[in-house]
Write a structure and sequence with these properties.
CATH topology: Double-stranded beta-helix
Radius of gyration: 18 Å
Order of helices and strands: EEHHEHEHEEHHEHHEEEEHEEEE
Helix content: 25-40%
Bound molecules: N-oxalylglycine, manganese (II) ion
Shape: globular
CATH superfamily: Clavaminate synthase-like
CATH class: Alpha Beta
Strand order of the largest sheet: 1-2-3-13-5-15-4
Number of domains: 1
Strand content: 15-25%
Distance between the termini: 31 Å
Number of helices: 9
């Protein structure tokens, strides 16, 4: 059985010396992964050279894989792998305002992946192929602890509230200019409502929010966003964050149910950052 060793950090656990073939043929492994994900929120596999086919197999151990809409960013042999990179297919680095970089810069806000979907992603896996020298870390925030830190008064109010998550909203607020949504996209991703406090299979609860959350249902947008900022701006100060400094061949899996994450800025027009991303689909509505 694989062992996850908790980091000396607010969240996260690490596995060293992963033998993928052995792990994937162990029937206990899949169950162990699901439990470890819910318990530690961020799982780090350090220094294993993971081939694309192995990455896909490991992803399947967590659940069904999403195939992201952008065909030009798919790995040629494995459509489940999304090439998350500022390097263009011709090998040059994309310019700061190129749509490829603008998209990547959108991940610099605290968010949880695809919360604008009715059934948002379960977890996301990122495997580092080429890493930056400066900046480009990924931060993860423990949103169970963020809920626990609220005053009793705030907690009992927030428990009653739902948030509107909208891809149209988050896209319009991207740090760079993204193309406006087409009618087809708008029809595909209508705004959805999720409870602000999310309850998990083990009975624990966390705050479910982030960059796709437009406003509190029934409340003023400006007031809603002030309250989101208050919580999100406090995550680092309140010591709820683990910052992952990437090394090549790191694989990090984060639980989108219980954490928020963000990319820290780096010199995106000059430094190469090449990651392979896999998204594991969720199986149930937020409750
Ligand atoms: C993502 C994401 C952060 C990073 O792929 O969803 O937020 O560090 N990535 O690249
Ligand atoms: Mn993300």
């Amino acid at each position: 059985m694989i062992e996850f060793v908790p980091l000396d950090e607010p969240l996260g656990a690490v596995v060293t010396d992963l033998d993928i073939d052995a792990a994937l043929s162990d029937s206990e492994f899949t169950k162990g992964l699901a439990d470890a994900l819910l318990k530690h929120s961020v799982l780090i596999f350090r220094g294993s050279d993971i081939a694309p086919a192995e990455l896909v197999a490991l992803g399947r151990a967590f659940g069904e894989l999403e195939i992201l809409p952008e065909p030009d960013k798919r790995h040629p042999d494995h459509p489940e792998i999304f090439n998350l990179t500022n390097v263009k297919p011709d090998g040059d680095i994309a310019e700061f305002d190129d749509s490829q970089s603008v998209f990547l810069r959108g991940t610099q806000r605290w968010h949880t992946d695809s919360s604008f979907r009715e059934i948002p992603a379960l977890c996301t896996m990122l495997y580092a192929v080429e890493v930056t020298k400066q900046g480009g870390q990924t931060e993860f925030a423990d949103m169970r602890a963020a809920l626990a830190q609220l005053s009793d008064e705030a907690k009992s109010e927030i428990e009653q509230l739902s948030l509107v998550h909208s891809y149209e909203y988050s896209r319009a607020n991207n740090p760079g200019r993204m193309d406006p949504m087409s009618d087809e996209e708008r029809a595909k991703y209508p705004p959805v409502e999720h409870p602000w406090v999310r309850t998990h299979a083990d009975g624990t609860q966390s705050l479910y929010m982030g960059g796709h959350a437009s406003h509190i249902v029934g409340r003023d947008e400006a007031e809603s966003r002030r309250r989101f900022a208050e919580i999100e701006d406090g995550l680092v100060a309140n010591d709820l964050v683990y910052q992952h400094r990437w090394r090549a061949h790191d694989l990090v899996v984060w639980d989108n149910r219980t954490t928020l994450h963000r990319l820290l800025p780096y010199d995106i027009a000059n430094e190469r950052r090449v990651m392979r991303r896999i998204t594991v689909a969720g199986t149930e509505r937020v409750r």
